[in-house]
Design brief:
Layout lengths: L8 E2 L5 H13 L23 E5 L4 E6 L5 E2 L4 H13 L1 H7 L27 H14 L4 H13 L4 E2 L1 H10 L1 H13 L6 H12 L1 E3 L1 H12 L14 H5 L1
Parallel strand pairs: 1-3
Antiparallel strand pairs: 2-3, 4-6, 5-6
Helix pairs in contact: 2-3, 2-4, 4-5, 4-7, 4-8, 5-8, 6-8, 7-8
């Protein structure tokens, strides 16, 4: 009915889903393969032992086990949500003038563009993500970062902030992304100066979230853009389909 609240419901402690997640967590908690990311120096300080699982259903049940409230930076997961905001505010047709929707067999950080259009091939490679950030910077001169963080918060269901130490580390070491941004500007795909786009891009990657936030953000996409915990609409269904 009009004005009704969200469909969020507490997940029962003794539910089969909760029990399964606890078994899953116990089975894998001791895994220590791999290593902490260090391509951005600040990320090397992450706790390799932190491990949490959060599952959020489309009707708002939240199941958590382990270190689900330990914060990390969102990094490349941000690309989908920045693209969503660009499509929401500019429309799909305008966004697709700057960013393609085709797969690429190259590395995510390749310094290449589509040989025919001179645009990034999709929004999930760095070239496409920097361009999407540039579109937000053009739309919101001077406060593009604030607009993005607010949008991410609607997906997560709570106000989010930027990890300034990670942002500074990204800015100081982002030479490859600067090369991509200058290539984009030279091709005409990037509608603002490279540093304006990069200021938004480095900030979006540095937004601090936890496992629960990411579960709710995923459930919001699964629910067609409506946050199942808060009931707030973060994006229109047509945007989510894109």
């Amino acid at each position: 009915m009009p004005g009704a609240g969200p469909a969020h419901r507490a997940a029962p402690e003794d539910s089969p889903v909760g029990a399964y997640l606890r078994r899953l967590h116990a089975r894998h908690a001791g895994a220590d393969e791999g290593e902490v990311a260090s391509y951005i120096p600040e990320l090397a300080d992450a706790d390799p032992a932190a491990f949490g699982i959060c599952l959020v259903t489309a009707d708002g049940a939240v199941y958590e086990v382990g270190d689900t409230r330990s914060e990390l930076t969102i990094q490349s997961i941000s690309k989908a949500f920045t693209y969503a905001l660009a499509v929401e505010e500019l429309g799909a047709e305008e966004v697709e003038r700057h960013i393609g929707v085709e797969p690429t067999g190259e590395a995510f950080n390749a310094i290449t563009l589509d040989p025919v259009t001179g645009t990034p091939q999709n929004p999930m490679v760095n070239a496409g993500a920097v361009t999407a950030a540039g579109l937000i910077a053009r739309r919101h001169p001077g406060d593009g970062v604030a607009r993005l963080v607010d949008s991410y918060g609607r997906f997560a269901g709570r106000p989010l902030t930027i990890d300034e130490a990670v942002r500074s580390s990204e800015d100081a070491t982002g030479h490859r992304n600067r090369a991509i941004a200058h290539l984009l500007r030279g091709s005409g795909a990037l509608p603002v100066e490279p540093e304006a786009a990069l200021a938004v891009y480095f900030s979006q990657c540095s937004v601090a979230v936890d496992c629960r936030d990411l579960g709710i953000m995923a459930a919001t996409l699964a629910g067609g853009g409506r946050n199942p915990v808060t009931g707030e609409r973060a994006a229109q269904p047509a945007t989510v389909r894109k």
